[in-house]
Amino acid sequence: MHSEVVASRSADPRDARDSRESPRDTPRESRNGSNPNLDAVSLAIIEQLQEDGRRPYAAIGKAVGLSEAAVRQRVQKLLDQGVMQIVAVTDPLTVGFRRQAMVGINVEGDVEAVADALTAMSEVEYVVMTAGSFDILAEIVCEDDDHLLDVINKRIRALPGVRSTESFVYLKLKKQTYMWGTR
Known about the structure:
23% strand; 30% helix; two-stranded antiparallel ribbon; 6 strands
């Protein structure tokens, strides 16, 4: 088990600048046009933590040119704003979950209502509303096939608005990483 940082580009648009930053450390605009106020130093801190979520603040500070205390404040602000999380990423098989699946879901009516209901299910790890063949993709992690059948058949298909589902059962997990950097 190891720690990884999961970074999000849809942060609360609050100023993330530190008083020690130079004028060249200007906030960065995201691809969707919103400004999450992530300057070069914040991005460098995120990248340091993506490499090793347990890296000491002093080592991060040395790499990005800030004091340990300044890094600690920056990290806390990034966490508070929802820009990133520091979590332990596990292989589900090693912790007792023998079945994973991606479920494509077609919805009649309010897609967000179904997505909200899915996010409330403990077995659902990932929910994304999509354009294309499915309205929603949901990743499910279960103890076994019976558990997966119960989640899909009795809980997901029973949600108001769910028209159909298609399940893609994972045979082997070849790659699971959150190391996309900050671009």
